[in-house]
Amino acid sequence: MERFHVTGMSCAACSARVEKVVSALPGVESVAVSLLTNSMGVEYAAPATPEGICQAVREAGYGASLADQGQTAPGAAPQEDAGEWKAVRRRLIVSLCLLLPLMYVSMGHAMAGWPVPALLENPAAAGLYELLLAGLVMVVNQKFFVNGFGGLLKKAPNMDTLVAMGAAAAFVYSVGQLFLVIGGSHAAPHSHIGYYFESAAMILTLITVGKLLEAYSKGKTTNAIRALMDLAPKTATLLKDGQPVAVPAEEVRPGDLVLVRPGESIPVDGEVVSGQSAVNEAALTGESLPVDKAPGDHVTAATLNQSGALTVRTLRVGEDTTLRRIIKLVEEASATKAPIARLADKVSGVFVPVVLVIALVTCLVWLALGETLGFAVARAVSVLVISCPCSLGLATPVAIMVGSGVGAKAGILFKTAASLETAGKIQTVVLDKTGTVTKGEPAVTDLLPAEGVSETELLTLAAALEAQSEHPLARAVHARALERGLILPTAVDFAALPGSGVRGSVQGKALLGGKTSFLADQGILNQVWADKGEALARQGKTPLYFAADGKLLGLIAVADAIRPESAAAIAELKELEVTPVLLTGDQESTARAVAAQVGIETVIAQVLPQEKEEQVRRLSAQGGVAMVGDGINDAPALTRAQVGIAIGAGADVALDAADVVLLKSALGDVPASIRLSRQVMRNIKQNLFWAFFYNIIGIPIAAGVLVGIGITLNPMIAAAAMSLSSVCVVTNALRLNGFSPYRGSKYQPEKDKKSNPPAQPEPKGEPTMNKTMTIEGMMCMHCKAHVEKALNAIPGVTAQVDLEAGKATVDCPAAVTPEDLTKAVTDAGYTVKGVE
Hints:
Strand order of the largest sheet: 14-26-25-24-15-22-23
Number of helices: 29
C-alpha cells in the first residue's frame, strides 16, 4: 500500500470525495482516506501511478503528495500539526478582538441599551460599523470561503461550504437591510432593524473555536505514538577501531558495533556481543520489569539499558527496526477503515448536498407561510451551520487511532482497522500448541530418583553426561542443573547413539542415558519403572532414563513447558464466551495431555500445515474464527482466519501473515486484544449514535419545526452546537486512553516475568541465623539473579542481593557455615570479600 499526504480536507464529505475520485482511476484496487491523519493509503497497479493519483486529488480541489519516507507514524510531523494549531489560534484571537466590539453594539446596545457614542445611535452608522467589523472577521477566516465555495464550484461541497454559505447569507441579507436604511426605506431604530452581521461573525468565530478544540483533541490521539518516536535516540556511540565515536543514529549501518552505556537508549536492533545488563523494554512491550541481556541475546531500538555497558552488533537500522515497524503498523491501521465506518461514509457523501437542499426548502417554506425574509433567512442559516458532517467523519477514525495507540502501548499491534473491529466479534480461537500454548522449548518437568539416589546426584550425573550432547532434550537437562547452581564434573568417552541415547564416563562411572527401549535392551529397566515412564508419556512428557555401572539412577521427564499464563488465558477466553480449540501436528495423546492442563476441551491433532488451513476454513463456516500461531507452518491458517494473531517471537512469515501481532509473545494478550476491540467498537457506536442523533434532532429544530411552541434556534447558537458536536465525539474517543486491556484479567504483563526461584523451606526446629556477605564482581541484574540462585539452592537458605551495595543478606540454618555460603558464590563466578 502506497501512502499519500492529503491537504485541504475539512470534513467527512471531503474524505469521501477524495476516495471517490481516486477509486475511479484505472488500476486502483482500494483506497482508504483518513481525515484524522490527513493521509491516504492506495493499493494500485498499472496503469495507475503516484503522479496520476496526486493529480486526480488536486483536480478534486485538494492537495496531495507522496508521504515523506521519514514520517512513518501518525502525527510524525508534529511541527506541521503545531503550526496548524497555532494558525487557528491566531485566527481565533483576532476574530474575538473584532467580535467583542461588534457584539457590544449589535447586542449590548440594541438589546440591553448599553451606552454607545452618539454617532452609533444612528441605525445607518451602526450598520456600517457592524459591516466593517463583520467584514474583517470574514477576511480573517477567509479559509472557510476559499475551501467552501471552491468545493462547491468543483461539485464537491463540504462542511466549509455550509459554514461559508451560512455566514455569507447572513452577511448579504444584512447588507441589503443596510441599503434600505441608507435609502430611507427603514426609519425604525437600530434595535428594530434585522441586521445579522453579528451572526455572520459569530458563526465564523464559533466554528473556529470548534476547529481549535478539534485540532487539539485530534493531536491528543497520536500522543502515544509521538512519545514512542521520541524514545528513539538521535545519536549512537559507534566503535571504530575499538574507540567510541558519537555519530547521528541514521549513520549506523548493519554490522557496525555500537556501545550502549548504562542509562542510554539502544539506538538499533542488534545482537549483544559483549557485556551483561538489564534492559527496560516497557516502551515496546508494556512490561515494567527489565529483561536480562547477555552475549547472544537480541536487543531492540528505543529500549533502555539500565545497568551494565553493552556492545551490540547492528542488525537493523532506520525503517527496518522493530520500533519503526510498530509505528508503521499503527499508522497503516489508522489509514485503513473499519467496516462499521462504511455507513458513515455513505451518509457523508450525500450529506452536504442534502443539507443545502433542506436549507433552501426551509427558506422557501417560511416565505410561503408569510414570514418575513429575515426570519426565513435566519432559519436557513441555522440549518446550514448546525449540520455537522465532521462528527460523522471523526466518529470511527479517532476511536481507531486511540484504540491502536492503547494496543501499541500494551504490546498488541493491530495491522488494520478491520482487524481491530473483527477481533471483538470472534467466537472461536484456534491455538497452535508449540510456541503458543507452550513455550516451544523443552524443560525438565519431573525428577524421579531411584531408591538410594538423591535428586541432586541424579541431576548432576545426568547433566554432566548430557552436557556433551546437542540434542534439545539434553540441553533441557543441562539447563536445569545450571539453574540449580550444580557443579558438573566432566564426562569422557562420550558417544551419542542416534535414536537410542548417549553414553560416557563420569568420575569413573560408566553412564547410560536414553529412552525406555534403550535401557530395557541393556537389562537395566524393570516393568515398574517402564510403567512410570509410560504414565509420564501419556501426559505429553518424554521420559529419559539414566544408569551408572549397570544400576538405574532414575528418570528425568522432559516436556515442552506450558506457558505460565496459558491456563488463565484460556479461562478468560471462556469468560468472554469464546471457544478455544487446540490445533497441532503433534500426536493425539500429547495434544490432549496439554489441552487438559490448560482447560481446552476441543483438540484437533496430527494435522499437516495445509490441513491446518482446511480446519480453520471448516471452523469459519460456523462463526468468526481467530487463529493464534508463531511458526511458518501456521502462516496459511493465519491468513485463512478472520483474524490471524501472531506471537511476536515467532517466524517473520507468521508475523507477515497475521492481522494482529502480540509483541510480548504472551497468550494472555489474546483475551486482552478481544477486550480492547470490544471497547473500541463500543466507543465507535457511541460516537456514531451521537453524530446521527445530533444531526437528526438538530436540523429539524434549526429549520423551525418547534416554532409553534415558541422555540427557535438562533444561527449563533446553531454554530456553537455544531462546534460542540465534533469536540464531543473526539473527547469521547479520548476516554479510551484510560482503558486497560487487562482490566479484570488474571494475567498482568508486569508480573509475567521469571522471578527468582522460591527459597527452600527452612527445616523445622532449626534456629536461623542472619549473615551479610560482601561480594565483588556483580555488574548487572543478571549477576544479581545468578548469585541469588546460587545461595537459594542451599537447603534452608533465603538470600536477597543488593546490587548497588555489593552485599547479600542471608537467612540460613545454623548448620550452614560461612564456608558453605562462600563456596556457593565462588562457584557461581564471584568473589566473596567477607561474611559477617
